[in-house]
Amino acid sequence: MEAWRTNLAQAVLAKFYRVHQSTISRTVRLVTAVLAVELARLDPPVTVVPDTALIIDGTLIPTGNRRDVTGTRSGHRRRHGMTVHVAADLHGRVLAVSDHEPAALQDITAFRAWRLAEQLDRPQTLADKAYQGSRMTTPHKKPRTPTSPTPTCASSTDNCPRSAQPSNAASDTSRTGRSWPPATAAASPNSPHSSNSSSDSNAYEPPGRTIYA
């Protein structure tokens, strides 16, 4: 039973039990046939789905990358395997399991190949977003919000957001040939140079420098 519980390779099981790998292979095939007969008798397959709320979901059975088998890689899960779908009630009791399908198929495509798909495809069945496009109850997609184009400004004087101003636009504190505060600004009444403000306004001021009287 370790082969089904752990999904270990037959070579690993053979080394663990100190037998040949062919012995493990024959044992697994024999026990699998016996279990299939007994399980069909004890728990017969469901042919009619009860008219109650159900939950359905898909799961991946990892198989590894088989050289002679194609279509087993799931792009969503990024693993190789087979996909099965499980239907359960709201209490978690499993009611039915689908046949395995290649993992490369999308969940909704593999679900439609199930013999119970027509009975389960109804609003009473709850499923995730992988089953959108069916009649089952699935989460709503988040609506796409239209993105408005970013406004552009020809100059820094335009009435637009600051982030939309051109990157090469000069700010109030970084204009070419000027310093802050401006040299021509009126001096305060308490300044000792307030009386010479009229004469200093005509002084030559090189670009980028401030001349004080």
From TrEMBL:
Biased composition (Polar residues): 158-177
GO BP annotation list: DNA transposition
Start and end residues of each Transposase IS4-like domain: 51-135
Extent of Low complexity compositional bias: 145-157, 179-203
This protein's name: Transposase IS4-like domain-containing protein
Gene Ontology molecular function terms on file: DNA binding; transposase activity
Region (Disordered): 125-213
InterPro entries per record: Transposase_11
Originating organism: Actinokineospora fastidiosa
